[in-house]
Input
Amino acid sequence: MYDFIKGRVDYVCPEYIVIEANGIGYLIQAPNPFVFSGGDEEKKIYVHHYVREDAVALYGFTSREEKKLFMKLLNVTGIGPKGALAVLATGRVDQVVEAIEAEDEKFLVKFPGIGKKTARQMILDLKGKLDDVAPDAFPDLFSTEGGKEMSSYSMKNHELEEALLALEALGYSSKEIKKVVAQLEKEKKTTEEYIKDALQLMLK
Output
């Protein structure tokens, strides 16, 4: 129904963004909502209109490749929208495609909600079928590189607090998040950068 929505980002939180286009505010869930924050210029968000008997939602992405991979992940038994968003939150479509093509179950099970059975199902369902998602995502591209829980982190870094809330929204446990906090605190970064760095650390 929709390919993309172009407008001004009115609101950003760990779970979703609101983009205003032609006087309408669209609530769009995204893998990493903070990718769209900053600046008043219009932003183009590629969207998937998700419709089920019990749910209607918009999911947004920075590229058509992200959107395509999200849609393919939804066709894998055991993966719903939340699980697919968590897989895409690193912003590295090529990384996920490489893991599937290499049958790297050890890497795939590091995503929240993805167990061995689901990782195997991802490989069975998607291996060899992702050329249209990331046609150039091979050799050299595989990198090695919630509010109620926040009080335990005892920090005053607003951007880092937002990033940790976003990780909780994706399904990562407090225990998993706490393991990377010390490394993240070493440098002052944007919320988006903290999220990407944290995800890379947890996927090692």
The first helix runs from residue 64 to 74. The first strand starts at residue 4 and ends at 12. Residues 147-203 form one domain.
